[in-house]
Amino acid sequence: MEAGVACKLKYPTWIESERFGRKSTSSLRFGRILKQDQKVRVVVSAHFPVQTSSYRHSSVSFEVSCSSNKNVSASTLETGSIHVPYDEALMLKNMSQEIEPYLNGHSIYLVGLMGSGKTTVGKILSHVLSYSFYDSDTLIEQEVNGMSVAEIFKLHGERFFRKKETKILQRLSSKKQLVVSTGGGAVVQDENWDYMQKKGISVWLDVPLEALAQRIAAVGTHSRPLLHYEPGDPYTKALKRLSYLWEQRSKNYAKANARVSLEEIAGKLGYRDVSDLTPTEIAIEALEQIERYLKEEGGMAIAGL
Known about the structure:
This protein is of the alpha/beta class.
């Protein structure tokens, strides 16, 4: 077979690392019709050593050889590497199955500044873990005749709201298999930490302030009562207030059992901006960090393992 035929081979791009499981190597065989002076059915064998640095991304080095039914000796055509796409949903499912024995039914409490994605990520986690999802702000609104958080702050004040928040967390702490999205200020009260870590694992969603300000400005600040007193355009108002809240609360957020840094995720995945991350990618990282915590001696003790 002429060497030029090799150039006409197209390597498949549908290969996913999950098709190989966690094995370090695998192989693939497929057929292709090539048109030269005459049609020749060529069988191409590709050997794939899969190199993975995390659940989410991997590269594949390949060596392709071909042989035909025309008494042409097999030969190596080309070597190289390709980027392997991954299936987010499959990754998430695999991670949830891996962490399940360590999690042992313990609840997950998401903490972080306003706009950090606690509700969005929380719903993804609750679904894949078959847990129940609760938003503490929503539960408070239901207890106050359906009033919004902004209305509660305006009519009853923040102190009233925080007391309701503590009672909600106390009630939830007696249950298992929950994912709870907490309010941004829930971390300030030591009592709340007692309830969250009584039978649960706290996870801090750490998002850069600039990214948070952009998110909040994009959807408006009307539902964020703590932003109502800041002057300027929505982005400036949000960034100024978030910076103040960060100074007040950063040490409290750091008390969480696990930290999910969006900057670190973006760096590992090669993204320039954390806004390029999908909620599922953040949820996958959350499960990885929870698993890492639970495998440590302190986490194993909390989980009752």
